[in-house]
Amino acid sequence: MTILNLERYGHFDWSFFDGVIADSLEAKEVISSLMQEPFCSVPLVWIIQEDGLAKRLLDYNKMGWEHLISDWRSSFSRADVVVFPDFSLPMLYSALDSGNFFVIPGSPVDAWAAESYVKTHSKHNLRARSGYSADDIIVLIVGSSIFDNELSLDYSVVMHTIGPLLAKYGKQVDGSGPFTFIFLCGNSSGKHHNSLEVNFTSFFASIESPKR
After folding, report:
1. More confidently predicted of 123 and 28
2. pLDDT value at residue 176
3. Half-sphere exposure of 135 (CA within 13 A, CB side)
4. Which PANTHER family match (predicted)?
5. SS3 at position 85
6. Going by DSSP bridges, is the β-strand pair 101-103/137-142 parallel, antiparallel, or unpaired?
7. Mean pLDDT within 182-199
């Protein structure tokens, strides 16, 4: 894979490549060069993740600037396939559709970031950083974002439901570490984020003492 600097696109012989992937609307200038001979046959995949142009198209239509719409339509039609991360974007760009729109749910950027994260963060290291040992059993319970400052009653229902299962598991696994429940509720990106950790070292004692 070769990553090109957009400011130097004019210095490249596109016939050298077996295919080109553009990942932004800003790549339009590059695509314009790919519309010229002898580069018209170079396979092109254009990934569109933003809706800014779709909003401007409405203004272009109101102002009667058909030449701008036509110019963008020509650029979109040059791509062998235009890829969107969700189904709403193709509808917003329907005025530019030449039959080459395709939807792959999820952003490839997120997938690449996840792969990069996995390579540099192991499960053992993450546990150690958070103060947990390899033997600790950690259960995450995710609640509603509408409960900003207090835990939902749903958590009590969950604990009541899974209590017998955990007691049974505690009998079967000898020497295992304590159970740690992490409750997440509220808006994790806002000031009301609420994260509560409850360690149930003596949890089984309140349900049924494991028989040794």
Report:
1. 28
2. 59
3. 8
4. GLYCOSYL TRANSFERASE FAMILY 1 DOMAIN-CONTAINING PROTEIN, GLYCOSYL TRANSFERASE FAMILY 1 PROTEIN
5. coil
6. unpaired
7. 54
Supply the pTM of this predicted model. Answer: 0.50
- pLDDT above 80 (res 46): yes
Please name the amino acid found at residue 88: S
What the block records as the tokens of 188 is 């994790």
Domain ranges of the chain: 6-109, 129-206
Alpha carbon separation from 156 to 49, 146, 161, 170 (Å, rounded):
41, 17, 9, 20
Beta bridge partners of 198: 181
CB burial string 172-182: b at 16+ within 10 A, e below: eeeeeebbbbe
Report the sign of the C-alpha dihedral through residues 71, 45, 54, 29, in that order: negative
Contacts 24+ apart (CB under 8 A), 143-150: 143/183, 143/184, 143/185, 144/185, 145/185, 145/186, 145/187, 145/188, 147/185, 147/186, 147/194, 148/185, 148/186, 148/187, 148/190, 148/192, 148/194, 149/186, 149/192, 149/194, 150/194
Q: Which two tokens mark 28? A: 């339009």
pLDDT tens-digit profile of 170-185?
A: 666 665 567 777 777 6
